[in-house]
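ingest -> validate -> predict -> emit
validate: passed (alphabet ok, no gaps, 129 aa)
predict: started
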Amino acid sequence: SINNSDLGTKRPLTRRLSQSHTRNSWTPEEDELLKQGYSEGLSWAMISTTYLPRRSRGCCWGRFKILQSKIAYSRRQSKQELYLPVLSVQKRTQLFKHAWRLVAQDMLGRFWDEREFESFHLANITPKQ
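emit:
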């Protein structure tokens, strides 16, 4: 609290902004300039000064992090990438069966699917039925 000697009352300390701060959307051109500055190895302050004078260094850093998370999210959501391991296993099912048959032979002739199930169980993985 600050003593207001004129009024003899206390009022909370508040910071008034001299300018009205509004959020300005980033344009695709600004995003490209941001990426260019980053690829050149410039600091956030230099990117701000050189390429984006209307944006602060903190604003540039924040936007870059947002762009990176969008890229990572889109990579994770690629259906093709999500299904690649499944497709690979399906494609190589015969190889897996052959390998488990060989393992079963080494294990006193028990069936390969028994050994496969046991190994999945040991690893706490439920095999596809």
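The beta strands are 2-4, 9-11.
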